[in-house]
Amino acid sequence: MPDRPTTLPALAVACPSCGSEVGQLCTSHGGTRVRRHNVHQDRTAAHRAVQQPTAAACACGTLRVGSGRHLPECPNGAGR
Do residues 12 and 22 touch, judged by C-beta distance below 8 A? Predict the structure, then answer.
């Protein structure tokens, strides 16, 4: 298999479409062709999901995203 391109950050997760493992290029046509220039959309979505920060409860009990940030619907932070 060819060297992994450094421009495909989605290779950090396994591909749910073709079953390629972490660090391996995606394949097409039943595994007979290597996708050298892109990855499956499902793999990109899986990578984005991993990159998203997890929500946690803030002091007021509302879920927040990131460190010290309230969600827009939080009455104590108004999105700050």
Answer: yes
How far is it, in rounded angstroms, from Cα 4 to Cα 20?
A: 12
**Every domain of the chain and the residues it spans:** 9-65
Cα 69 from Cα 24, distance rounded (Å): 36
What digits encode the pLDDT tens for the residues 13-42?
Answer: 999 999 999 999 999 988 899 998 999 999
pTM beyond 0.70: the answer is no
Exposed (0-12), middle (13-18) or buried (19+): which is 71, by Cβ within 10 Å? middle
* d(C-alpha 7, C-alpha 36), whole Å: 11
